[in-house]
Design a protein that fits this description.
Blueprint (H helix, E strand, L loop, with lengths): L4 E5 L3 H12 L3 E5 L3 H21 L8 H6 L1 E4 L2 H5 L4 E4 L5 H14 L5 E4 L6 H5 L8 E6 L8 E6 L5 H13 L3 E4 L9 H17 L5 H16 L4 H8 L3 H16 L10 H15 L5 H19 L3
Helix pairs in contact: 1-2
This protein binds nicotinamide-adenine-dinucleotide.
Length: about 300
């Protein structure tokens, strides 16, 4: 019988999320963390998150929360964690040398046809896996945070990643209810962060040049563009705004190009403009000391949106 075991390396924020997602799909998860105390914290937190998901009606899969909880085990031994697993999800801090050294240890004890997958937010797969003996079994699986409520997950292969690694990773993500996006080749920042940082760059320039306040930039996003983007991307938005894309191009291409040519180069975040944006965000979200309250509000709104999108 094919293995149902998945290894999760690192039991921080993302390791916990992946563990919960995998058990929701009926898999057995073994979690390893270099800090034994972290595993105990993770166990308590996962139980509390499973309870919350059940209360919200957002628990995934057909297993009860008790069954899902029981299907996650914790170990202080990397080899025991990886042994017999068909999929290994690394969720350790974003440091290239650390990730390289942990994968070098993993590949020595894993099944030869297992998949090594990294949660890295921005490290290129070729950089992490270039020195591995089994680099063909490596792929990046980059979740959006929080993964339960924002299911888009980037799958980024290196040029040497085996085709079956890509296919199986995409299939596994679909099976557990995520929305995988396969990049055809690696690029700095992947796709999600390139889009996110393009928005940061343009809004930064608009605020710096005194065109708009930071508070009003947020209105444009949360009460304007974001209303549509919660349901469709920029190109479907364009498609619907005219009679298809050729009609959109006939009507708007000259105007859009004229504006795009005006875009100024990005500037490194810092200095006076940052102070202006900090004050603006204090007005929007309250002082830094009270951010936990605002985060809880954000998470409640995300839950409501996830329910709306699920048609609940
Ligand atoms: P985190 O700091 O919450 O957790 C990291 C965990 O790894 C800790 O529990 C730590 O004890 C453990 N660890 C450290 N060294 C280890 C080792 N050698 N072996 C095993 N465990 C070890 O970090 P996180 O936010 O969960 O991020 C993990 C990865 O996911 C990073 O690469 C990050 O860039 C990526 N990521 C994070 C987010 C996010 O929003 N937090 C989103 C997408 C991807």
């Amino acid at each position: 019988m094919a293995s149902k075991k998945i290894a999760v390396i690192g039991s921080g924020l993302i390791g916990r999320s992946f563990s919960m997602l995998f058990v929701s799909g009926g898999y057995q998860v073994s979690v390893y963390d270099v800090e034994p105390a972290q595993n105990a914290v993770a166990k308590d937190d996962i139980w509390s998150q499973l309870n919350k998901l059940e209360e919200q009606g957002l628990l995934r899969g057909s297993l009860s929360k008790e069954q899902q909880f029981a299907n996650i085990t914790y170990t202080e031994d990397l080899a025991e964690c990886v042994n017999g697993a068909f999929f290994i999800q690394e969720c350790i801090p974003e440091r290239l040398e650390l990730k390289k050294s942990v994968f070098a240890k993993i590949e020595k004890v894993m099944s030869p046809d297992a998949i090594m997958s990294s949660s890295t937010s921005a490290l290129m797969p070729s950089l992490i896996s270039g020195d591995l003996t089994h680099k063909n079994r490596f792929v990046v699986t980059h979740p959006t945070n929080p993964p339960f409520y924002a299911p888009a997950t980037e799958v980024v292969p290196a040029s040497w990643t085996d085709a079956d690694v890509i296919e199986k990773t995409v299939a596994l993500l679909k099976e557990i209810g995520q929305a995988p996006v396969l990049l055809k080749k690696e690029i700095n920042g992947f796709v999600l962060n390139r889009i996110q940082y393009a928005i940061l760059a343009e809004t930064w320039n608009l605020i710096r040049d005194g065109i708009v306040s930071p508070e009003d930039c947020d209105v444009i996003m949360s009460q304007g563009l974001g209303m549509r983007y919660a349901f469709m991307g920029p190109w479907e938005t364009a498609y619907l705004n005219a009679d298809g894309l050729h009609s959109y191009s006939d009507r708007y291409a000259d105007m859009i190009y004229g504006i795009q040519k005006d875009f100024l180069p990005p500037e490194k975040i810092g200095g006076e403009t940052l102070d202006v944006i900090q004050r603006g965000m204090e007005n929007v979200a309250g002082p830094v000391e009270n951010l936990e309250q605002r985060r809880q509000w954000r998470d409640r709104r995300l839950v409501a949106l996830a329910k709306l999108k699920a048609g609940m």
